[in-house]
Amino acid sequence: MWNFPLFPDQASTNAARVDALFLFELGVILFFTLAVCLAIFVLVVRFRRGRIVDRSGPPLEARWLEVTWIVIPLILSMIMFAWSADVYFRLYQAPPDAAEISVVGKQWMWYLQHPEGRSEINQLHVPVGRPIKLKMTSQDVIHSFYVPAFRIKQDVLPGRYTTLWFEPSKVGTYHLFCTEYCGTSHSEMIGTVTVMEPAEYDGWLAAGGAGPSQADEGERLFVQHHCAGCHRGSQVVNAPRLEGVYGKPVPIQDGKEVRFVTADDRYIRDSILMPRQEVVAGYQPVMPSFQGQISEPDLLKIIAYIKSLAAKETGTVR
Amino acid sequence: MSNEEDYLQEYTLRSWLLTTDHKRVGLLYMASITLFFFVGGAAATVMRLELMTPKGDVLGSPDAYNRLFTMHGVIMIFFFLVPSIPAVLGNFLLPLMIGARDLAFPKLNLLSWYVYMTGGLIGIWILLFGGVDTGWTFYTPFSTMFSNTMVVTAALAVFITGFSSILTGLNFIVTVHTMRAPGMTWFRLPLFVWSHYATSLVMVLGTPVLAITVMLVALERLFHIGIFDPKLGGDPILFQHLFWFYSHPAVYIMVLPGMAVISEIVPCFSRRPIFGYRFIAGSSMAIAIFGFLVWGHHMFVSGQSMYAGMVFSIISFLVAIPSAIKVFNWTTTMYKGAVWLDTPMLYALGFIGLFTIGGLTGLMLASLGVDVHVHDTYFVVAHFHYIMVGGAVMAYLGGIHFWWPKMTGRMYPEIWGKLSALIVFVGFNLTFFPQFILGYLGMPRRYYEYSPEFQVLNVMSTAGASILAVGYVMPLVYLLLSLRQPAYAGPNPWGATGLEWQTDSPPPVHNFHDMPVVTAEPYDYSPEAFQEEHDHAVSHASR
Ligand code: HEM
Ligand SMILES: [Cu+2]
C-alpha cells in the first residue's frame, strides 16, 4: 500500500532536462515558502500582543527593501524564463534524422502508423536511443498527446498538423494519456508506449508482416483517388507534377501577385482538401476538393508518398 | 445611537427584494452566493468520492462525472468566486469606507443582483435537467459540434451573469471617482478600495469579451457559421485566445479582492500602519493591467507559435512580481506591531501561506519547458485551487468574520471561529497538496478513472476534502446562530481605523449620522493602544 511513486520515470532525454529545471524551481519555491512561513511565525511570536518588546518607530516604507524584493525575484524569474525557454525550444525542434510516426486522435482512441507501414492502436513501439518525430492530427475534437515519462505533451488539432519529438532513453513500458478533455471517454483514451532495444524493435516491425510502407500505401491511394490521372504520367489535365515538390517553395497566384509558399504538410493537406485556396501560378483552378472523401490516416499516407518523391526531379513550371 | 434607523430594521420580504440600499444588496448577494458555494461544494464532494478508487464505481457513468465537474467549475467560477468578495463585501463596504451614503447608482446595483440571480437560476436549471459536459472552459469544437448537452443554455447563463459583473464594476468605478468624502484623497483610500477599483477595471474591460465569446459559441452551435470549426473553415485556437483573454484576467477578479481583504485585516490585527502603502496600491493596478497580457500562458501546448509562447511566458513572470510585493509587505507589517491572532487574522495568515504556494507554483507553469509536462494535469488543479480556494475563499471567510460585527452588530464565538480557520487550513492542505505530486507523476485532469498507482494520493485528497467540508460548514452554523443574540458588538469591536468603523453596527440606513471628513492617512494604528472595546465585545459573544 505504501509503495506508491512520488516521482515519475525518466525515460527520454527531455525528461532529464525538464526535471533539472523543475528541481531548481522547487528549490526556489521551497526557499521562499519557508522564508515567508518562518518570518510569519517569528513575527507573530516575537510581537504578539501583550508581550513586552520594543515597538518604537515601526517603519512605514523602506525604498531599499522594496527595491530588493523587486529585483531579486526579477533576477530569479528571468533565470527561470531563459532556462525554460531553452528546454521548450529543444522540445519542439526535432533533429532532421528523426523517424516520423503519424498519429491520429479520435474519440476515443489513438491511431499510430510507422513509416515502415505497421500501424497500431493505443500502443506505440519505439526503439531506444533513436529520435522519433510525431506528426499528429485529429479527426474530431482537440486531443492532447501526453507521455509523462518523456515529459512531452502537445495538443492534437482537427484540421491541422502539430509535431512533437522525443528520444527514448530507457527500455520499458510507459503511459500514454490524452490530456485535453475530449468528451465522454476522455479518461479511457489512454495507451502505452513501449521502448525496446533497436534489434527487438526491428523484429517487432517485421512481425507485422512485410506489408507496404506508409509511402507505398500512399501511392496506392494516390492512384485510387485519381490523383495520378492529372499529376503524373500522361496527364489528362495540365496539372503540376509532384516530384521534388515537398519542402520547396511553390509559386502561388494571389490575385495579380505571385507569392511563394513552402510545400510542407500543411500546404499539401490544404491543397487536397481546399484546392482553390492556393493555386500554383500558371495553372487553372480545376482540381476538385477531396474534403470528406479521404480519411485523416489516408491523408497522412498520401503526404508520406509525396514526401518520398522529394528526392526525384521536379517537372513543375518555373 | 437610535436603533430605529438601522438598515436591518425592516423585515418584510418586499423590503428586501425592492431595496436599493447597498448594504442590503450586499446581504442579498451573500445569501445567494452561499447557496451556490454549497451546491458547487456538494458537486466537489461527490467528485472526490468518485476519485477515491481508480475505477468509476460511485457515479457509474463517465457522463455523470463530466457533467459534475463542469457544473462544479461553472458554479464556483461564475456564480461564486467572481461575485463573492466584490458583490458581498465590496457592495457593503465600499460606500462606508469612502464616507458615501450609497453607491453612485443604487438601482443599478439592485438590478445587478437580479441579473445575477437570473443567470444563477438558469445554471441550477441546467444542473437539474441534463447538465453540460464541456468543462467550464467550453473548448471548441467539442462544445460547438460534438457535445450533446445544454451548451447553449449554459452560454446564456454565463452571458447574463456577465452583465451583473459589468454593472457592479461600473458602479464601483463611478462611486470611487465621484463620491469620496471631503479629505478622502486617492492616497488616503483604504487599500480595499484600491483593489476593488483595479478589479472593477478588469470587470468592465474583460467581461464583454467573454460575453462575445460565449455568444459566438452559441451561434456556431445553432447555425454552424464557421468561426471555430475547422471543417467550416474556422479556427479552434481562436476560441482559446478569446476565452482566455477574459478568463485569465478573471483570475485577478477572483484574487485582487482577496488581497483587498488581507490588506485591511493584517494592519488591524498587527496594530500598526501597513508597510509600503503606495507599493501595495500600485501593485494592484499593475496586476490588473499586466493581467490582460498573459492569457497565452494557458496555451503553451495548444499549437500557438513558439515565439508567442516566449512572449506570454516572460510577461507571466513579470506579473508575479507585484504579487510578491504584496506578500512581503503584509509580512513586514507585523514587524514591531502587536500581533493578535483572532479569527480574521488566522484566516489572513492562512491566506498568505496558501497564496504564496499557489503563486510560486504559478512560476513553474509560466516556465515553458516545465508547463509542457504539467499542463492539464492535477498539478494545475492543485495550483488553481491554492490560488482560488486557498486564496480567495480564505480571504472571503476572513473578511466575513472581520466585518460580521459591522454587518450584523453581533460577535461570533471566537473559539469556534479559530477552530474553523484551523480545520480549513489543515483540510485544505491535505486535499490539494497531494495533487501537486499526482500532477507531476502525470495524472491528467478531468479523469473519471485513473491508473491504480495514483490511488494512495487520491485517497489522501478525498480524506482532506471531508475535513475541509467540515471547516466550511462550521462558520455557516455559528454565524447564523450568532444572529439570535442581541446586537452588542458596538461600533468598533476590533478598534480598527477606517470610516466604516466610525458608524453604528449595524450601520444606519444612510450609513453615517454626520458626514465624515477625513483628516488622516489610513491605517493610523498604534501598537500601544489597548483594545478594551474588543475584549468587551468578544466576552459578550462567548457568554
Ligand atoms: C471542497 C473543496 C473542493 C474540492 C474537494 C474540489 C475538487 C475538485 C475536483 C476533484 C475537480 C476536478 C478536477 C478535474 O478532474 O479536472 C475540481 C475542479 C475545479 N474546481 Fe474544485 N474543489 C473544491 C473547491 C473549489 C472551489 C471553492 C472552487 C472555486 C471557488 C473550485 C473551482 C474549481 C474549478 C474551476 C475546477 C475546474 C473545473 C473544470 O475542469 O472544468 N473548486 N475541483
Ligand atoms: Cu482525447
Automatic annotation (TrEMBL), chain A:
Domain of life the protein comes from: Bacteria
Transmembrane residue ranges: 20-44, 64-83
InterPro entries: CcO_II, CcO_II-like_C, Copper_CuA, Cupredoxin, Cyt_c-like_dom, Cyt_c-like_dom_sf, Cyt_c_oxidase_su2, Cyt_c_oxidase_su2_TM_dom
Known catalytic reactions: 4 Fe(II)-[cytochrome c] + O2 + 8 H(+)(in) = 4 Fe(III)-[cytochrome c] + 2 H2O + 4 H(+)(out)
GO cellular component: plasma membrane
Positions of the Cytochrome oxidase subunit II copper A binding domain: 96-207
Cofactor note: Binds a copper A center.
Cytochrome oxidase subunit II transmembrane region profile domain location: 1-95
Main location: membrane
Task of the protein: Subunits I and II form the functional core of the enzyme complex. Electrons originating in cytochrome c are transferred via heme a and Cu(A) to the binuclear center formed by heme a3 and Cu(B).
Protein family according to the UniProt entry: Belongs to the cytochrome c oxidase subunit 2 family.
Protein name: Cytochrome c oxidase subunit 2
Species of provenance: Aquisphaera giovannonii
Gene: ctaC
From TrEMBL, chain B:
Subcellular location: Cell membrane; Membrane
EC number: 7.1.1.9
Gene Ontology annotations of biological process type: electron transport coupled proton transport; oxidative phosphorylation; respiratory electron transport chain
Keyword Transmembrane helix: yes
Domain Cytochrome oxidase subunit I profile positions: 10-519
Pathway in which this enzyme or protein is active: Energy metabolism; oxidative phosphorylation
Top-level taxon in the UniProt lineage: Bacteria
Catalytic activity reported: 4 Fe(II)-[cytochrome c] + O2 + 8 H(+)(in) = 4 Fe(III)-[cytochrome c] + 2 H2O + 4 H(+)(out)
Keywords: Cell membrane, Copper, Electron transport, Heme, Iron, Membrane, Metal-binding, Oxidoreductase, Plasmid, Respiratory chain, Translocase, Transmembrane, Transmembrane helix, Transport
Pfam family, one: COX1
GO molecular function: cytochrome-c oxidase activity; heme binding; metal ion binding; oxidoreductase activity
A single Gene Ontology CC term: plasma membrane
Entry function: Cytochrome c oxidase is the component of the respiratory chain that catalyzes the reduction of oxygen to water. Subunits 1-3 form the functional core of the enzyme complex. CO I is the catalytic subunit of the enzyme. Electrons originating in cytochrome c are transferred via the copper A center of subunit 2 and heme A of subunit 1 to the bimetallic center formed by heme A3 and copper B.
Protein name in the entry: Cytochrome c oxidase subunit 1
Lineage: Bacteria, Pseudomonadati, Planctomycetota, Planctomycetia, Isosphaerales
Gene name per UniProt: ctaD
